[in-house]
Amino acid sequence: MARDEFEKIDEQVEPQEQSTQPGSEKQMNPEPIYDDKDYRGSGKLEGKVALITGGDSGIGRAVAVAYAKEGASIAIAYLDEHEDAKKTIAAIESYGAKAIKFATDVSDVENCNQLIVDIISEFGQLNVLVNNAGKQFPQDDFLAISPDQLMETFSTNIFSMFYLTQAALPHLQKGDSIINTSSVTAYRGAPGLIDYSSTKGAITSFTRSLSANIAEQGIRVNSVAPGPIWTPLIPSTFDAEKVKNQGNDTLMERRGQPSELAPAYVYLASKDSTYVTGQAIHINGGDYISS
């Protein structure tokens, strides 16, 4: 998709809000671009099985569709956005890929364990784990960040990665891949998202440390660090004015679309990246990241 088409979509975004997290894609206007019709698969993930958390919408949906184009079978995990999940499954299946959805809260360790059991029962294998589920609760006053908010943010954003990876690891083989969704906020900080940014920093360290821990097994661990991307998390957490201006402060002066991230997740899951582990791919509209 040409750059001017992304810019045109960005200009159509009006101030809007949603009342619950992690938000619904069907309520967004305009809806995010999750399927770049110019992207053509070439069988890079043929025979692979992938689990994508937060796979019902946003980045997760775009990754699922790209994986389907590359020949993977896909399981998506999501909280309770059932209509969004149905649309994602239909999009996956439209490319001839097998797909299954699981409504579950990945902040709970038992749910994570059961999720992996169910996926192995359904597909008989797991090759790519995409840890993508996340929440954020903007709070300008640091003193107002409650213990409950702190626990919910960390439980969803980073504890779930520990739980799922521990459950999945016995089923992964040499050549398989773990991909974690981090954020630009892990590198530059965000004054109104201190707890969220802290979890994303933890994800960066988790990625680097785990990659070293299991390198001998031939399993690669990497991350993608998005900047301002048009996903349901944006209108469900920010006020209408911030939603309208999302991405204006980037060098490209616009927000990114989920489909613009998906090829990075394909790259990290495929043989194209056999010499890449412990790294972060930054997709943020031009922010300079020094590490």
Automatic annotation (TrEMBL):
Lyase recorded as keyword: no
Pfam families in UniProt: adh_short_C2
Spans annotated as Disordered: 1-40
Compositional bias ranges of the Basic and acidic residues kind: 1-11
Composition bias type Polar residues, residue spans: 15-27
Keyword Membrane: no
Classification via InterPro entries: NAD(P)-bd_dom_sf, Sc_DH/Rdtase_CS, SDR_fam
Keywords noted in UniProt: Oxidoreductase
Family: Belongs to the short-chain dehydrogenases/reductases (SDR) family.
Identification of the protein by name: NAD(P)-dependent oxidoreductase
